[in-house]
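hey
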């Protein structure tokens, strides 16, 4: 029971930490309505081009977690990987996406 209690408390702390970080980030970012429509379109275009530039496996790993809302363990089952192997793949895919986004922004002349 102590192990279960420790896990529950740990999960609660992590959730609370993520929540407060989200609140802090939201306070520093403008509301979506405050962003002009043309900037939203440019931003979406940059993301689409960066995603298209990735290989299919990287794109699938990222979209399963970000778009479908699967946990890394669930996405690992979908893609046929062990949970550990999928986490490594997801980490590398995120790194490649960041590089691709930077490159796409540079090519577009858009700065963040």
């Amino acid at each position: 029971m102590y192990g279960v209690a420790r896990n529950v408390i740990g999960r609660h702390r992590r959730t609370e930490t993520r929540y407060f970080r989200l609140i802090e980030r939201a306070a520093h970012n403008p509301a979506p309505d405050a962003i002009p429509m043309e900037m939203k379109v440019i931003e979406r275009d940059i993301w689409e081009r960066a995603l298209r530039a990735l290989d299919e496996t990287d794109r699938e790993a990222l979209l399963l977690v970000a778009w479908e809302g699967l946990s890394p363990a669930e996405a690992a089952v979908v893609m046929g990987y062990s949970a550990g192997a999928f986490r490594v793949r997801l980490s590398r895919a995120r790194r490649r996406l960041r590089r691709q986004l930077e490159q796409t922004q540079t090519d577009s002349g858009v700065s963040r």
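Residues 61 and 74 are 11 Å apart (CA to CA). The mean pLDDT is 84.
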